[in-house]
Amino acid sequence: MAKPFQFFTEQGIVYYSGYKADNLKALLTGLRGVPSSSIFYHLYHSLLRRHFTTTDYMNDFAQWVWGVLWQKTLGEKLASFDPLEFTRLRDARARLIEIVDAYVGETEYFLRVSEEQAFYFLCMKSFVYPLGVQASSLPELMQALRVVSPQSIFYHLIESRLRLREPTNDLSDWLKTQLDMPDLAATINTFSPYEYNLEELRNKIIAVVHDAIQ
Amino acid sequence: MMPSSNNKHHLEDYAPIVTSGVIREIEELARLLGPVRIVHVNSTKEGGGVAEILGWFIPIIEELGMKVDWEVITGEKDFFTITKKFHNALHGQPEEFTEEMFAAYLDNVGKNAPKIHEDADFVVIHDPQPAAMIGEYPDRKNRWAWRCHIDLSEADLRVWGFLRPFVERYDGAVFHLPQYTKNLMAPQFIVPPAIDPLAPKNEKLSEEEVSSTLHKLGVANDKRIILQVARFDRLKGPFGAIEAFRLVRRWYDCRLILAGGSATDDPESQAVLAEVQDMAGDDPDIHILNLPPDSHREINALQRAATVVVQNSRREGFGLTVTEAMWKAKPVVGTDIGGIRHQIIHGVSGFLTHSVEGLAYRIRQLFGNPGMAKRFGQQAREYVRNNLLVPHHIRRWLLVFHSLRRANGDLITLPPHEITE
After folding, report:
1. Thinking of the domain B207-387, which architecture would CATH place it in?
2. In chain B, residues 172-191 whose CB comes closer than 8 Å to chain A
């Protein structure tokens, strides 16, 4: 008997970290000093906030560097940074620092922007709780996927990589270990939020689960 | 602030509007918080944005199983004269203060602050008027939050220096935008204002009602419309909007509507209105509409009739007219300042501009590319649908209460419960 898959959600309230940056060096200082939840908020959670649209600049750091500091090269480097390659926030933070530090080292002049245009490092206090929705089979999974929120999709598809510290998500993990469906698990794990928004991701998962039932 | 609505709505009424599963999440979040008692304290039950927000906020919170008390701080006229000066000074306007004024403020707070029940779990104090009343409760057991509805980024240091020791005693402060925060030891939560999609200003209107409203207002619906909704104030940039319109009209036949209000007791707004009318001259394509404050359906119709909505403000907090236009799937061109920068995603749901010329250029771009304008409008609506409606506001406040209860740690697992399905 398969252990049921329980749908959780993650809800967060944003608070100011006390760090803000009005130039690249200050951005670097902030990246080094802020709590991990700030890296999570600006790098991962930004996907959720813009989940209805796929743009070139899905994380907040890239948006600010490109759109406010007008540092196009660094903006592109940060935009192409894929947080899903990392299963630990500290590794993602280290890579971010490496990218910005290298650019700062090559730069002679630093644009300073007004306080109003400054980058405010925000943290997120997250609360994870079960939604009271579960699935023990593929038909139940398909039904559940239709009613859960985008935050729940985000939690299971994206945030779970950090929790599991594995390059997979917990839905794929459940399909593989509990339903013995490694191919379906692998397919779902290839769906990238950089190519699809969360509603599209939801629909794509429903579609492949539907195909698997057929 | 939140547009007023005479009709109280239930949380479930928003279920068909917000994304799937959001209402269930809010109900769970409330259930996990439990039947707590919350006390709100502000300075009036009628009039003003805070009273309007509490008017719809409290019934929904009660519906979720919590008990809410709404108290007001009382005082003589002198007290509110002083707090009005506080308000202006915190907004960065020059005001004169004496030591006696600060003493009189504290004296009134000591005498007239409402009594907080010991069994209250959370106390939310709104704005500066009752801010110091936390000093009356040195042995408090409940959690207190200070909700600041004011932009403190250019706050007068004398007033802020006076209030700050009180604010530091709170368990948390709540601001609209990160730019409004101060250096405080207490956590500073960000809760942006929301709009009510079911209120008269935002509810769905038929095409017939939109047409008849425009007709009633003397605006022919025969060509592209550029709209700015804002009170007649220099900081809202009405003159720049007219300049931009004249630049656009060299290329596209269109109308400009500047819709807003001007208080009869505010000589400045009357003067600005007169100047705007003077600048518009007898141009039949410029419509200056000085509307009464309760013209919610008229504003709604104008926003729905507009081709492009602009917000040419020089200074703006979280411009609710921007959110309202976005909710109506309109592309918005706004100045790259304040809250507008947080509302519009440049090149995705609208454009951010820095000059009259830039404003005109972006309007032309949207006029010339109806497909892009439509796409921007749809993305704008989705952004609001996912972030800035009443249920999101309720959710953020429930999270603030959870956060006040659990101060430590940034990742908190709430207790699991029985599976109900």
Report:
1. 3-Layer(aba) Sandwich (3.40)
2. 172, 175, 178-179, 181, 183, 187-191
